[in-house]
Amino acid sequence: MERFGQYILLEKVATGGMAELYKAMKVGIEGFERVLAIKKILPHLSSDEEFINMFLAEAKLVARLNHKNIVQVYDFGKTGQDYFIAMEYIRGKDLKAILKRCREWNMSFPVAPAVFIAKEIAAALSHAHGQKDSTGKNLNIIHRDVSPQNILISYEGEVKVVDFGIAKAEAHSKTATGTLKGKLSYMSPEQAWGRPVDQRSDIFSLGIVFYEMLTGEKLFKGDSEINTLEKVREARVEPMASSINVELPAELEAKMLKMLARETASRYQNALDIEVELGSIIFKLIPDDPAMSVKQFMRELFASEIEAEHKSEMKEKPLHMKIEAEAEIIQPDPPPVPEKPKYEAKEPPPFKERPLKSRPYTGPQPRKWRGCSCLIFSIITLVVLTGGIMFMFPEYKAKVTPYALDAIAKIKNIYHEKMGTPGDKSLIQEKPLPRNFIVNIKQGRTLFWNNYFEEGDNYCTNESYGKVCIAKEDIVSIKIKKDKNE
Fold first, then answer.
1. Which pLDDT does position 101 carry in this prediction?
2. pTM recorded for the entire structure
3. Domain spans, the chain
């Protein structure tokens, strides 16, 4: 397990003539984890500039492919000196491992799963062959390496084709002779002769894979590579004996032979026709979900591997959390800080707040009754008017005097109501009533009352602010306060 750029390489899955394949994980913030596959280009190819240029050009084309039967490419680039491709990780086996397990167990490949897998491969090829650019021109994406190693079957019954476009870059590499080793058995005749190829070359390779699934044997296999190459160029395909697979329908064999026609004009001209025709046959073989039959077939072949991988993933999870905690997650570089000009305008000094001077709070002031001066002024005015009238008109003295005296009396009453009588000093200052009794309470408190009286179970007294009562059971004693002179 090692860090590879923004990825963590968990384990090596396979090694080929062109690259190494790793199971990897991408760890992000907030516990984000994603399992994927990393294909690292071998060091001797990383130094081949011609190969790298073609590899990058083809990788850009492959990134355009988005189909359920094609392994999705997420990223491609370079870390250190290693070029890589990050792609979808398939939890399952390639078709080569499945065919090998069938031979080891001496069992034939079921017809229905074989037809379904061939149909899904045809769907992937049809999608790739039909890709066009923004102007509507065909991109001519050709796989060139349709073989069991590049067909992945998941434990859930999914079929995925991998390595689109890589074979084209591989074919133009200076190390083509070495990298093609082991793939001669799945070439079309025109590809084996080194002639120009089109999408019909992939159809011939699909026919070879289909033949091997139905029979359990390789179609072109010689004693040596040269002998194998000769058989591929000759492309002689004999009709299968009925003893090879008794469950094989006659119409299915005819379609397979059409894929394997030596002349390109005699083959299927596009993969879509194969997808449609195999789809009608698979419906007759399995009316229900055909992917379920592939899933059951995979679980029968690889039950122990599925359980072992599940246990391994459970053990790896705490280790992933540890790596996430210890590894520094790569953050984008902060934007550059713009340089300040040499001559800057001076900024004004910061504003300083001055403390406000506050006056001491004197509390609420009592409002004074201001009607006294007005009342005195009214009395003086009335006396002057009355005296003036009686002086100027003596004949009205007897008539005016009662009214004047009555008015003076009313004004006097109003004054007394507002200001109090000379003997009433309650508005000026109230003298406290004499406290003649000492009241001792159980809580240890002592009160001084001017009088007291019983009211039910209470002793009460009258204060200036109202009546006060205390329960008899709470009073210890009531004594008469003695004068100092007594």
1. 94
2. 0.62
3. 91-306, 373-419, 437-480
